[in-house]
């Protein structure tokens, strides 16, 4: 694996993958909260967030969903609302060297908080194994 920054990290591959995923989820949250949102741009915004994350190092997959039920509760005469953490759900898969980490961001009602969390950490499947990455 060619990573020019690897010498700066004193951690395992799975720890590095989790670190990278956390950076990406944090950037999604802090970059896009407050973005003007309407029925007309929700699909475009989901794809824009995905494409912005997808080009970052070590990302294998990303899925973004905006809960459109909040758009029904338009509180503004200007036909849009601002994106908030309770509307956004993200699933992200990061691969670093020998590890794959699947992380998520979702609003949990019991916490009343848009939590970023680790769903799964696993080794990279090799060509000889029965499961694909």
What does this 3D model show about the protein?
It contains two helices and six strands. With 133 residues, it is an alpha+beta fold. It has one domain: Pantoate--beta-alanine Ligase, Chain: A,domain 2 (2-Layer Sandwich). The strands form two sheets. It has a four-stranded antiparallel beta sheet. Strands 1-3 form a two-stranded antiparallel sheet. The chain is elongated, with a radius of gyration of 17 Å. The model has no long low-confidence stretch (mean pLDDT 92).
What gyration radius follows from the Cα positions, in whole Å?
A: 17 Å
Name the CATH architecture: 2-Layer Sandwich
Return the structural class: alpha+beta
Number of separate strands: 6
The SSE order reads HEHEEEEE
Task: Give start-end ranges of low-pLDDT stretches.
Answer: none
Summarize the entry for a quick read.
This protein is an alpha+beta fold and 133 residues long.
Question: What features would you highlight for this structure?
Answer:
two-stranded antiparallel ribbon, 133 residues, alpha+beta, elongated, Pantoate--beta-alanine Ligase, Chain: A,domain 2
Can you lay out the helices and strands and say which pair or pack?
Blueprint: H1 13-32, E1 36-37, H2 42-54, E2 59-66, E3 81-82, E4 88-96, E5 99-108, E6 113-123
Antiparallel strand pairs: 1-3, 2-4, 4-5, 5-6
